[in-house]
Amino acid sequence: MHSKKIVALLLCLYSLAASAQDWNKKKAAVVLTYDDALNVHLDNAIPALDSLNLKGTFFLIGSSPAFTKRIDEWKIVASHQHELANHTLFHPCNGSLPGRNFVTPDYDLASYSVRRITDEMTTTNTLLHAVDGKTERTFAYPCGDTKAGEASYTDAIKENFVAARGVQGEMVQKGNVDLYNVGSYMINGQSGDELIDMVKKAMQTHSMIVFLFHGVGGEHSLNVSLAAHSKLLHFLKDHEKEIWNPTFMEATKYIKASGTAKKTNR
Fold first, then answer.
1. Fewer CB within 10 Å, N side or C side of the chain?
2. How many angstroms separate the CA atoms of 155 and 152, rounded?
3. Which pTM was predicted?
4. Tens-place pLDDT, residues 203-259
5. CA-closest candidate to residue 179, choices 193, 162, 195
6. 15-23 long-range contacts, CB within 8 A, separation 24+
7. How far does the chain reach from its first CA to its final CA, in angstroms?
8. Residue 42: in which H helix or E strand, if any?
9. CB neighbours of 93 closer than 8 A, spacing ≥ 6?
């Protein structure tokens, strides 16, 4: 009986240890995402990532000049195993919501049909395929909006994408994850220490954290300084034995394969 109790205790301890290392055998997962296809992504963020062999996911607007005028550079980005992901063709947002005076009438999601937003997504997928040759893609909702007019377009997301990223701040747990609205933390002005504290919380809670960057050293009103961004990346590199740094595609596929994603009708 005594030996059986010891075995049971050891099995329990093993189970606890395994659950504490359940992000590809690491304590936590940190996904670095960058929105809107900005020049600073090519000029600042990607060189910083490459210098430390870290990976990022770039949610690209198909019409962005930083994409259309620098396609050869984005091909190199893809060859370095960063993810090129879909952020629509024109980045439409719901202009009827508070604080949305930047939305122009032509690209006001409140006046879109589901067919129109779907056309934007599929066209952008075609553009991205011409760059990296891939057929699987992930998506990020522009401004976090999930409706075209009064209708939800999430069913169209499920038809065309492996997963989608939202903008609600959350530490992602493997159990019951909605892969078509994965939460993220929008970064704007945080210090390097503040970003690292967020990662430490993910490590303590055995979670995945998705960072949402726009400007990296400028070019966007939502911005992180080069110093803060660099400090975060160096922390991830220094703790790579404990932290998994997948692309958004890799992370969501891993969750799906583990069988812990929230069940959705598809």
1. N
2. 7
3. 0.91
4. 999 999 999 999 999 999 999 999 999 999 999 999 999 999 999 999 999 999 988
5. 162
6. 19/206, 20/206, 22/174, 22/206, 23/174, 23/206, 23/208, 23/244, 23/254
7. 50
8. none
9. 100, 102, 103, 107, 108, 109, 142, 143, 145
DSSP 25: T
Measured in degrees and rounded to the nearest 5, phi and psi for residue 16 equal -65, -40
> Per-residue b/e over 174-204, b at no fewer than 16 CB within 10 Å?
beebbbbbbbbbebeebebeebbebbeebbe
CATH of the structural domain 28-92+121-144+159-258, one choice from 3.30.420.10, 1.25.40.10, 1.10.10.60, 3.20.20.370: 3.20.20.370
Nearest alpha carbon to residue 182 among 144, 229, 137, 214: 144
Pair 54, 34: CB distance under 8 Å:
no
DSSP state of 243: E
What are the tokens at 28?
């936590």
Cα separation, 94 vs 49, whole angstroms: 33
Strand-pair partners of 106: none
Alpha helices by DSSP H, listed for the chain, are 2-19, 39-40, 46-51, 65-68, 71-79, 114-132, 154-160, 192-205, 226-238, 248-258
